[in-house]
Amino acid sequence: MTAFALDDPLDRGPGLPGPGNVLRTAADSIPPSSLVVLAIFSVQLGAGFAKELFAALPPSAVVFLRIGAGALIMGAFVRPRLKGLSSRDWAVGIGFGVTLALMNLAFYEALSRLPMGIAVAIEFLGPLGVAVAASRRRIDLLWVGLAGAGVALLAPWGQSASVSWIGIAFAMLAGACWAGYIVLSAAAGRRFPGTSGLAFAMIVSAVVIAPVGFTTGGTEMLRPELLLIGLGVGLLSSVIPYSLELQALRRMPKRVFGILMSLEPAVAALIGLVLLGEFLHAQQWVAVICIVAASLGSTRMSRRRE
User: Fold this and answer.
1) Can you tell me which family this protein belongs to (predicted)?
2) How many beta carbons lie within 10 A of that of residue 26, not counting itself?
3) In whole angstroms, what is the distance from residue 210 CA to residue 207 CA?
4) What is the pTM of this model?
């Protein structure tokens, strides 16, 4: 899962040497559609490596490692300013951070119980719900029905031991939090300059999830090799895709960007197959395709209305 960043989290300003300028120079030579695909693969690789950590740590501890790493990196480069914030600014920023923490915690709990492709497909119902809620066209009922059919095909009606009701519930909770994340992200963008709102939210998120992470992970979480993998997950899941998405958005229409992002559940299923050996049944692949098609259709119609 990624955020649709509006500014480069590694950007330190024109003329200043820094990782943002290096990444921008390298990214300018790559087609924007390829940047989006790279961002999607980066996020899903991060999720795949995080899932492998579940053998050593509980999901809540892995979430803390991922969010903590992302907060440290973004906080170091962005350095959000706290002086001069109004009470409403604080409320939006803290709400944004709490939602981010809950979204990641619910997603990782779902990931520990479901194949990657299924967890990401169900979570995608959140952004789909936001898009449909803003529409008044009857055709959007088609996308709702298609997505609902996909979830119905994934539900464990006794035919699939690889899918659990608890996992589906966590994935749907993650989707609901993602919908809230989209709304709060827009609100934070109006109140915080650049990506300082996202950096502020990630710091809040790390603080919120820290007690749970330390309680469940304990001293085992401090093993150097696990900390290193957690840092890699933070880079793959947050910093790298945010930067790639920004560069792509600067050079391509948002409609095309949204369509490409709709492919994320299918990429998650592919990464799960290759990296984790998660084989989906034909019915599960059909379900993932239904949700991807619903997301694609909703994205195309919403962009046409805009």
Assistant:
1) Belongs to the EamA transporter family.
2) 10
3) 5
4) 0.81
